[in-house]
Write a structure and sequence with these properties.
Distance between the termini: 59 Å
CATH architecture of the largest domain: 3-Layer(aba) Sandwich
Radius of gyration: 21 Å
Largest sheet: 7 strands, mixed
Strand order of the largest sheet: 2-8-7-6-5-3-4
Strand content: 15-25%
Number of domains: 2
Number of strands: 15
Order of helices and strands: HEHHEHEHEEHEEEEEHHHEEHEEEH
Shape: globular
């Protein structure tokens, strides 16, 4: 018996688990502490009413012979794939329904898609980066190289033609930095991928937060992208489906490598190892893309954007550098007084009773930085900003 030795190359625990353990330990020692959590990117607003209504109807259908659903299509039900295709079309982006594959979330897809690629491929990720990109490849034993993100490049690194990569991760708006690429910048990445014969794994989980018209909400807004890009998206942060679990990925018809259509490989993988997202959840997701659902989602997104404004205004008053907060639910701040990321975590927790996420946990370039989220309530966010402002002001 041999275990997967590549697990030995992983950090001892997942970043957000470490944050949770440290927070719980502090709470145990200070049971009366009123701790405000601006750390993990989980939503707090209730689900859109349209989604809940649709899921209730779908539940009732299961009581009838005619309405009962067992195993669904591996690709997702046609009603949801068609709705997602229409969602792209409403923004002027062409994605056919048959190119869309529904799943239980972008996080799962981002890890599972690696089954399509050989272990010997080199993976390029930005640094700092969402830990799942790195960890899922380390588990497979792939070589990972980094594109450094920093203040100088606005935490939006551009391609280095001297670096050879086979798989390229791009998240825009970015997690954790909140920075977002312009269409022109994404065009450079697409051209780089085409030159290298690489595939871009494009995480668009936060596209709904974009309000700036110069920014792309889909990689397929970029010429040439359909031949070298797989896009992942999610209902988690826009419709609040972090608990319901539903997302999708797009594998365009033009995405062919070595004579093999990646969409065919993905369907073969999914039909072997996955039985699809639940029918009831897919009906809720469909409702999220309806006119009523989009109106309700806009209210929730506006709520979180106001929270981001409150945090940003606090940091502006303190003269602290940050990215994000606009077109993103994340605020990526520079730790004051030259503090390290975990030092600042401990200080913020002890002095302000506020929890965030240490930038160092997202990569070497995150040292000295810290991520705050806008996903708490108005009241809690305002209180957290007030405590931070008073302590560091």
């Amino acid at each position: 018996m041999k275990l997967n030795g590549f697990y030995d190359d992983l950090k001892d625990s997942y970043l957000f688990h470490t944050v949770a353990v440290k927070t719980a330990g502090y709470k145990e020692k200070h049971p009366d502490a009123d701790i405000i959590k601006l750390g993990i990117g989980d939503v707090t607003r209730p689900l859109p009413e349209a989604c809940v209504k649709a899921m209730k109807v779908a539940c009732d259908e299961q009581l009838t012979v005619e309405g009962f659903r067992g195993y669904g299509p591996y690709e997702g039900f046609d009603f949801l794939r068609t709705a997602i295709s229409g969602y792209y079309a409403s923004r002027g982006t062409k994605v056919a329904a048959h190119e869309i594959y529904v799943s239980d979330g972008a996080k799962s897809d981002i890890g599972n898609i690696l089954d399509l690629f050989d272990r010997d491929n080199t993976v390029l990720v930005p640094d700092p980066v969402y830990p799942v990109y790195v960890d899922t490849n380390v588990m497979c034993g792939r070589r990972v190289i980094y594109a450094g993100a920093n203040e100088k490049n606005g935490f939006l690194p551009m391609p280095d033609r001297a670096a050879d990569a086979d798989l390229i991760y791009i998240c825009s708006p970015n997690n954790p930095t909140g920075a977002a690429y312009t269409r022109e910048a994404l065009g450079e990445w697409v051209r780089y991928a085409a030159e290298k014969g690489a595939v871009i794994l494009y995480d668009a989980a936060y596209e709904a937060f974009i309000t700036d018209g110069s920014l792309a909400r889909s990689i397929y807004e970029i010429d040439g992208s359909r031949a070298c890009c797989i896009e992942f998206c999610s209902f988690s942060k826009n419709a609040g489906f972090t608990g319901e679990r539903c997302g999708w990925c797009v594998l365009p018809d033009e995405l062919v490598i070595g004579g093999k259509k990646l969409a065919d490989m993905w369907l073969r993988r999914q039909s072997t190892r996955y039985n699809g997202a639940p029918y009831v959840i897919q009906r809720g997701a469909e409702a999220a893309l309806s006119a009523e659902g989009q109106t309700q989602i806009a209210v929730n997104l506006g709520y979180y954007k106001k929270n981001a404004d409150v945090i940003g205004a606090c940091l502006d008053r303190l003269g602290i550098y940050y990215t994000g907060g606009v077109n993103s639910p994340y605020i990526w701040m520079k730790c004051p007084d030259g503090l390290g990321s975990w030092e600042f975590f401990d200080l913020l927790l002890d002095k302000c009773r506020v929890v965030g996420t240490p930038g160092e946990g997202f990569g070497a370039c995150g040292k000295g930085y810290f991520r705050l989220t806008s996903f708490n309530t108005h009241e809690k966010t305002a209180e957290a900003a007030d405590r931070i402002g008073k302590y560091f002001g």
